[in-house]
Amino acid sequence: MRINVRLRDLLVQALVESMSVDMMVMLAQRFIPYYNLQERTGFPENMSVPKRDAARQIVNDIRDSRLVLQFAGLLVVMHTEGLMGRKYVISHMREILAEIHGAGFIFNREFGTFVEDSRIRRTRNWGTLVEGQEYVFSFMSLDIVGNTGLVREYPEETIRATYGDLRGIVQRSIEKREGRLWNWEGDGGLVAFYFAKKFNAALLSAIDILHDLFLYNRLECRFKSPLGVRLAVHGGPCEFRHNTEDILSDTINRTLEIEAVHTGPNTVTVSNVVYLALDPLLQEMLAPVETGDRSILHAYELRWEE
Amino acid sequence: MGGVVEIIVFSDSKSVRDAFTGLTLKGKCGVSFMKTGDLRKGVALIPPDALVYIDVSQMDGAAVKKALRLLSGNNGLRYAVVDPKNSIRDAGALFHGGACDYVCRETLREGISEKRIRCAAEFRKTEEPPVEPESGGMRPGHRPSGRDWKEIRTGQEYTFCFMFIELDNLKESKKTFGDANLSNPIEPFLRHVERSVTPAGGRVWMWTEYGAIVLFPFDGQRCDAALACFKMMLARKVFSIEESGFNAWVSYRIALHIGNTIYRSMGETGTIVSDSLNSIFHLGQKFARPGHFYLTDEVFGFVPAPLRDFFVPAGKFEGRDILRMRLPL
User: Fold this and answer.
1) How far apart are CA A213 and CA A207, in angstroms?
2) Could you give the C-alpha distances from A30 to A21, A33, A64, A70, B67, in angstroms and in order?
3) pLDDT tens digit string along A24-37?
4) What is the ipTM of this complex?
5) Could you give the CA distance from residue A305 to residue B24 in angstroms, rounded to a whole number?
6) pLDDT exceeds 90 at position A116
7) Do the chains contact at B329 and A157, CB–CB below 8 Å?
8) Pick from A235, A168, A230: nearest CA to A197
9) pTM for this structure?
10) B contact test, residue of A159, A172, A199, A218 with most B CBs within 10 A
């Protein structure tokens, strides 16, 4: 997020009017380990830094570290819920919130930080994840069944239009649930979910995609036979990189493995990690999968009353 | 159709013209070209047995609609659509509206064959096709309300597609949530209904205690209500989990029927006397089983053909054949 002068001034003002210099430093150290105000401002150790100088220096350093949203999020938490058992009244909170909202971010209470308002902007890191940090994600992998055969059988334009329609179905389904498409390679892709009930959201998106694809195949598909997909949902830790195609992660690898090895056409397979975290109603929709190894998997496919 | 077919192509594009030029060389088709902008003038001069191809590549959505309305309103004129940019998403709807051919980008590249022209000409004869009740169409006594709400006036009688939808098992729900608390779970359901019917042109006309009567304008050509309800049944479990707030499976029943009523605005419907309105209430409240979607055979005629095998006969009610949608499990 690009921080404008008004927001910077509001943050400086809020720090000056709401807390001591020691408190400011303590907050800065939550984001920048071993933060040394004297060193940063050039004031000698035996001299106290004036409040306004301290606040300006900290806000500038936070801005340079691209941590303004997280820092402002902490101020909101201090203001609404308190910090370390004490409540703080942070000045200019309303103006700070309005300024950040104007830039396309809203405060997420569950995570205590600002995330992008998906009606205004959508980025792969939800506007808040930090390069190199590890987070727990839920991943959904999608692959088109028989892609090689389809590419040989149909003209390029038909393939492009049909796969484009599929991508549209995927986008609509995941964006409703705050998912982000991290990778799309023409015949499939990888979607990440981080906020809210991320495991539920990933599986609901996958089910939604299967339902939409069923109608698409019946009503619109250009192919002679229905377009089929395989979907898998798995979750776990993963180090975030802005260039999401370059992320190496066991969690992602396992998601891809579940999709490629254990998933049939037009089915979504769910790892046990995800299954255990799902709402009971969603668990009811899944059936156990015979894996042939020790892994425990569950799956959903659209079936109809006879 | 063994004679010469007279074709008139409205297009400003050289590639479109080239695709048709080959036909004249064989002598079985007479092809003449006109500019797209001359459509309105040109339509009046077209011989009744001619076949018109209109190129929509230079038109926006509204202009396409206008051109098709002009052609379809021209007393049995046979017309077809050339779509070099593949911009029309629902080609099937063109045929419902009366078109006899659709030429996409790929077909255009391959060139138009004489065989295709003959098939298109045979597809719709110059005389009005007989109305087949099994495949939709207007019935005696129907007063079409149009494709949307623009022409509908309060106090006038129109034909609509009526939708009944209501939550099931209310007694059990009342026990679970209590009377006072039941309004909270009902709110998301009512929003779900509105959100689902609006894209198909539906408007909630009456809120009942635990559901609604929805009206869809009906023009005798199509009835998108059936697909909207199909989607609602397909999504009912996702809705239960994600939006309902019930924390339990939400069950609702739906019924669809086509009939007439005097139209009055929502909230002013208390004095309306309508057989069709009674019928839809009876169908929904007396016949429909919890969790199911029913429609009359008349509505069934408008269900998209690829979805028809998802409906099974469910018996007769008040003299009408009723069909039931097979449920997704």
Assistant:
1) 10
2) 15, 6, 15, 10, 65
3) 999 999 999 899 99
4) 0.78
5) 54
6) no
7) no
8) A235
9) 0.70
10) A218
